[in-house]
Amino acid sequence: MRELAQCALVNRRFLVATQTILYHNVRIDPVHYCEREIELATKRKRKSFFERNGEPIDAPKQRVEQFSRTVRDNQSLAIQVEFLKMPYMTRETCIVDLARTVSVLPNLKYVDLPEGLYGDDRSCMTLKQALEHRCPDLRKIKYLHGAERSFALLSQSRLWQSLEILELSQLEIEPNTLVSVLASFPALHEVKLEEMPLIDDSIFQQRAPAPTLPPITILTLQKTPGLTAGGFEAYLSQLHVREVLTHLTLLDTGVSPDELYRVLAMSPYLKTLRINQTIQRALTPSTVPPLASRSLETFQFEIESSDTSPHDLQPPSESYYQYLSSSVLAGNCPSLISLYALSTTLPSLLLPPPSAPFAGSKAPTSGLRQTLMLYTKSIPEHDWYLTVISPPTPTNRRGSATATRPISLYNGSTQLGPQWGDKARDSVIVGNGFGGFLAVPSEDGARPSSSHGHKHKHSWSKSSKGWMG
Fold first, then answer.
1. DSSP secondary structure letter of residue 295
2. pLDDT tens per residue, range 57-100
3. Element (H, E) at 455
4. CA-to-CA distance for 230 and 140, rounded, in angstroms?
5. DSSP-derived 3-state class of residue 311
6. Chain-centre distance of CA 65, in angstroms?
7. Which residue of 103, 114, 267, 425 pairs with 445 in a disulfide if CB–CB is 3.0 to 4.6 A?
């Protein structure tokens, strides 16, 4: 962007084209000072009474002031601004300048706002009034605890009719108020509800005179125990609703993992599903119908055992992962590409055991139709551990004892020692043709080397570098 701004100063013909690009999406970046900034600031001090040269300069704040002055003096530039982004500390300390800026941006769609504005803090009331009266095309807004009154007035004021993304957190509002406000936004397609204690399944009910919950494409529910699978079935029973919903996130809700099949059965176009739940008792997979979805592509299944669960040899959460593996291997999710789970045993569950020697050329039974990217970890604080599982293929060689086992690519970047080098070593599990399988290194993987090998490698690299110039 800096080079583009310099091009605008070269020729007047470049000015209009560059201004359209520069002022469409404005981003004020933070300035990261080096470690010598304190020493350099001390050297810049003059031996005077004020010592102003030694005071640190808040570069982002100065840029906000310059940008505010520019758009207030030039209306043709102000109408081109649609996105305004800035660091957290800048928007928290420049509330007055931010209010002056957004008051002259009529086409603004997104702006980084201070946290106090979402909770109706008094220090941000001027900024909020400027957004409500001068920015009618806003596309994303958030309401936190303390903003119940202003949120309830949205259904009557008809503000931001182009709003697309709405986030609500810790609001103590009635279900009828929530439904009436959501129904007042015709372009709304993404909703996030977090810690809403009064919200229950009544928001999914269909009432003829009163407004109903509109269709939502991306729905995120977090810490809402009042919303259950029965309410979702009532909501998804409407044709125009289940045809729109494609992304669903359930974090500590009333939808238990053993009832998840009911939600999947009513969501024929769902592509992304995430569930995070803490359970106390184990699941009997034979008593619950399997998970089935022909459209699901990304599935994040994070089930944890509570601290009060009995400490057996196998935690209760493992029964849910056995239930998940049986559903996947049965071919009930043919479009599944990525699978996330808090279990280290799931890769072995998805890899069927090799068949017996001389059992014929029939491939092992597996419902995988395409390569599956499996991400696992033991606890939420760890990094994801990648396992690539390919579907089994029958062998074409005459005389081969068994078919090949599904290939699994293990990425052990977080569990290998330093002797393996900086990069992770990948191993591929392949069938050996006699009922077993071998873990062989991939082409790019390097074997662990000793100190003697390091010396030869170092000397060879020096000589090769000199030979190549």
1. S
2. 788 899 999 999 999 999 999 999 999 999 999 999 999 999 99
3. helix 451-468
4. 30
5. coil
6. 33
7. 425
* Range with top average pLDDT, 171-180, 401-410, 412-421: 171-180
| 211-214, Cβ contacts within 8 angstroms, sequence gap of 24 or more | 211/179, 211/180, 211/183, 211/184, 212/179, 212/183, 213/179, 213/182, 213/183, 214/182, 214/183, 214/185, 214/188
Cross-sheet strand order for the sheet of 83-85: 25-27, 83-85, 110-111
CB proximity list for 426: less than 8 A, separation 6 or greater = 409, 410, 411, 441, 442, 444, 445
d(CA 58, CA 56): 7
Across the range 6-29, mean pLDDT stands at 84
pLDDT attached to residue 284? 85
What residues contact residue 17 under an 8 Å CB cut-off, 6+ apart? Answer: none
Residue 60 in contact with residue 31, Cβ under 8 Å?
Answer: yes
- SS3 of 158, please? coil
Q: What is the pLDDT of residues 136-185, one digit of tens each?
A: 999 999 999 999 999 999 988 889 999 999 999 999 999 999 999 999 99
Q: Quote the Cα angle for 83-85-87, to 5°.
A: 175
Q: What is the pLDDT of residues 243-276, one digit of tens each?
A: 999 999 999 999 999 999 999 999 999 999 999 9
Q: Is the pLDDT of residue 20 over 70?
A: yes
HEC letters along 227-286: CCHHHHHHHHCCHHHHCCCCEEEEECCCCCHHHHHHHHHCCCCCCEEEEEEEECCCCCHH
Token pair belonging to 176: 């009828």
Give the DSSP H or E segment for 3: helix 2-8
Report which residue type is found at 151. Answer: F
Mean pLDDT estimate for the chain: 81
Structure tokens at 286: 């034979």
